[in-house]
Design brief:
Elements lengths: L3 H18 L5 H9 L17 H14 L12 H7 L2
Length: 87
């Protein structure tokens, strides 16, 4: 089992590599490229933690409902729940 700190380090380096190499399969890399943004990987903020894959996908989708600037194509949140996310 990976420790949270170790897992965060892996994801951090994967995202950073995707942006540097402009991996077209990475949403972060595409966003940075399309919007001409610069990512500050040294000062990232983790907004949620979930060790289980499907629950993590739901959490990512839930966070994207709360922030309209975040893209989500992993999971559709039913409309009835969206009002809860925005309160």
């Amino acid at each position: 089992m990976l420790t949270e700190k170790f897992a965060h380090g892996i994801l951090h380096s994967e995202h950073k590599r995707s942006v540097v190499m402009f991996d077209h399969n990475s949403k972060i890399a595409c966003h940075v490229h399309d919007c001409n943004h610069r990512m500050d990987f040294d000062n990232v903020e983790v907004v949620g933690r979930e060790p289980h894959y499907h629950q993590r996908l739901f959490l990512e989708a839930w966070m994207s409902v709360k922030d309209p600037n975040v893209g989500n194509d992993h999971m559709v949140i039913p409309e009835v729940y969206k009002c809860l996310a925005r309160t």
